[in-house]
Structure formats: structure tokens, C-alpha cells
Amino acid sequence: MKLAYDGTDFAGWQVQPGLPTIQGSLASAIRSVTSEEVLPQGSGRTDAGVHALGQVVSLKLAVPIPPDNLKRALNRILPTSIRVLEAGIVAPEFHARRGVLSKTYRYTLFLCRPTKDVEEIVCSPERARWVWQYPAPLDVAAMMQAAERFVGTHDFTSFAANDPERKTRLEAESNAPDNIRTLYSSAWTLCGDELSYQVRGSGFLHHMVRNLVGTCVDVGAGRILATEMEKILVAKNRGAAGPTAPPQGLSLLEVEYGSEDLSDKDKRA
Hints:
Number of helices: 7
Strand content: 15-25%
Number of strands: 10
Low-confidence stretches: 169-173, 264-269
Shape: globular
Largest sheet: 10 strands, mixed
Distance between the termini: 8 Å
């Protein structure tokens, strides 16, 4: 299935005891429809407050319910902040977290900076849940230069938050942590009062996109030079980069899989 959700009122994707989560809400809705105890698997974990417009989810059901019927039934039960956009049948061995070719994220800032005519631009309530309201001027050209320097294959340790769960999983699998990722595109776009960062990569570390954004904002604010991005990458030290941007500006846009993982019509979810 492909999901869209407003993550504002949820403690992230992954189910947590006593907390509202996307995975938990979906599992509860599936149970109501099918009477099956199934834990749907997402392409990745989005943090508390982070949104998605193209999260991919896999699950196996025993009941032979047609995908379109399942989609309709779930959308009647799920909170309106979670929508099933698409549902389909894939190969039995497909798992949403494996076989991912790339993910695309977008982070949006709403620029509340004053102008010569307006003391401060007000963000409307309908947008406030999806943007970081930034009150000060930013050097957008410098932020664009910084973002370009992330393209390519690098060790992104300086932009990765500590992830105890990943560390435990890798230790159980006898694998060493690997923080090398490839970014295929990384760019800022200014449109009116919104400044958006869109990044597509082979994969992302814990808080990586938000840390890239926070570092670029520090560049735009003049606290870091755009030319320092290489030095920050080489440092492999989280303390060398900028702060973590707030979660509400981040959305998972798209997950892409190989043709061997999905049917031809569903290569891109």
C-alpha cells in the first residue's frame, strides 16, 4: 500500500506502547477489517511529527480481500490524518524495507521575515503543521551552494543522530555500522514565502535530512560557510554539523523500487 499522513499528532511511524503511531493505527484498522493480527512494515521509520505523501507499506493477509475493497474499508476506519492512497498485490517475498532504490524527501520552511512593507508575514494555520516557520533573513544562494556539495557518495556520520535500535540490530546481525550513502540530488527552491529543500538518495540515516537542513539554515544565517561542507563530511562527527531542524517541515515524498521487487506498473510507489 501507499500511505499519506499528517504526522503532527503521532509519535512517529513505529508502534510504541501507550502512544499514537502510524503503524499502530494502521494495524488496528487492519484488525478491524480482517480480524487478523498483522504488523504492517513501512519502507522506513518517520519520526514524531514527520509527514508522508508516499510511504510504502507491505503486509501479508490470509483473508482474500480485493485490494480496492481493503483500501476503501481502511479509509473508513483510519483517522482522517492517515489515508491509504493505493493498494495492490505484489510478489510474496516483497518487503517494503528491502529492495529500495531511492527515497525522496522534502523539507519546507515558511519565511516569516519582515519586509519593508510588512512587519512579519503570518503563516496560515493550514500550512503551519507542515512547515518550519523561520523568522529571520536567510542567504538562499549560499544554502543552494551548500546543498549541492552533498550530492555524491559520502560518509554522512556528521549528519546522523545516534540510533540505538539500529546499532542493536546490526550487532545482532554481526554487521558493522555503515554510514555511507549516495545522494542523487540535493537542492533548495524558493517560491514566494516558502523555501523548500528536496533530496533524493539511496537511503538516509537517523535524522539525516533534518540535520542537512539545519546545517544549510546555519549557512543561510551566516553561522557556517557553504565551503565548509566538505570539512564537515570528513570530520565524521555530529558536533561538526549544524542543529537538527524541527520535524514538522519534513515529508517523505516517494519510494522507488526495482522492477524485480514490484510488478512493472508499480515500480514507483
